[in-house]
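Reviewer 2 asked us to include a model.

Predict the structure of this chain.
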Amino acid sequence: MTFTFICQSCDDSFEMDYTQLAESTKGLKCPNCGKRLPAAELDEFVGGVDEVLSQVAALRKRFVASFDVDADDLPAPYDSESKRAQGAEDEDTEDDVSDEDEEPELDDDEDRY
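Predicted model (structure tokens):
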């Protein structure tokens, strides 16, 4: 299984085999500009791919599964549009806290029950 990567810094594309990724101890490096993905982040990526592969292997008993993944075309909630929208919703939620939730301030002259 081969992965094609496009560097976000220099727009160069390169391919790596899954076994190369899984065995890498130095992370992922663009051969053109040297931009790196640290080994820890590559390990997380490989771990995620391992999980997907184990699920596909389980499906193989009944179905053949094939798919392509394009980082620019991820489904929600992984797409950047959803993340931006979620960030905006989180900000709106913080602003929506009304004074009704707060206990009213009483003047010293007012009686308390």
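Residues 5 and 14 are 5 Å apart (CA to CA). The chain has one domain: 2-95. We have added this to the supplementary material.
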